[in-house]
Write a structure and sequence with these properties.
With 196 residues, this protein is mostly helical. It contains 8 helices and no strands. Helix 3 packs across helix 5 and helix 4 runs parallel beside helix 6. The longest helix is centred in the last third of the chain and has 26 residues.
């Protein structure tokens, strides 16, 4: 009987790449005492003539305020992300992440001029709501999606109104809406593609 060799597979290039970039951004932020977070990995109101403003519209999803913030986001991304990447494909998942970054970055830039936003929590919420669409069948919206949307988005609305903390509830809500909309669109296109 032949012995099986233990092998590690690179199963989810987008999610693993995203996690590595976030980890590198965290280390850079610590080494530079937050300078790289301010320059590249957070979004805030700045001149539209500054090219870094546009980098920050996406770059803010890579920055984190510390280990706890980083681990809280990356753990969920590493649990949910690979399954979604396998189902939807790497390019579609990358599109979901970038769309979430742009929507949340532009919203923060436009609506909260004095607030600096960083972190991948919008991406986390996008992936959570995207995952609730994995079982969609032709002609219906999954009950699991409705329950997840009510619980996650409802909690964020409640916390946004009644809890005073440094959490960007709007980012979570917008991330969830992006994940839901793209989950619906991706599944609808898949159903239409296989319908005769």
């Amino acid at each position: 009987m032949r012995e099986r060799k233990f092998k590690i597979s690179f199963n989810s290039p987008v999610i693993l790449g995203f996690s590595v970039i976030c980890f590198a951004a965290l280390l850079l932020g610590m080494i530079t005492r937050g300078w790289t977070n301010t320059m590249f990995f957070s979004v805030y109101r700045s001149s539209l003539l500054n090219p870094l403003t546009y980098v920050r519209f996406v770059g803010h999803i890579f920055g984190h305020a510390g280990w706890e913030h980083f681990i809280g986001n990356i753990m969920l991304i590493l649990v949910v992300g690979p399954l979604l990447e396998e189902k939807y494909g790497s390019s579609n998942l990358l599109f979901v992440i970038l769309a979430t970054a742009l929507v949340t970055g532009i919203a923060n830039f436009a609506l909260f001029p004095g607030v600096r936003l960083l972190g991948a929590s919008g991406v986390v919420f996008a992936l959570i709501l995207l995952s609730s669409f994995t079982g969609i069948k032709e002609g219906g919206i999954p009950l699991t999606f409705i329950m997840v949307a009510v619980l996650y988005i409802g909690e964020q609305v409640y916390q946004g109104i009644f809890v005073n903390d440094n959490v960007s509830n709007l980012t979570h809500i917008l991330g969830g809406l992006v994940g839901a909309a793209l989950g619906y669109a991706l599944n609808r296109n898949k159903i239409n593609r296989y319908s005769y």
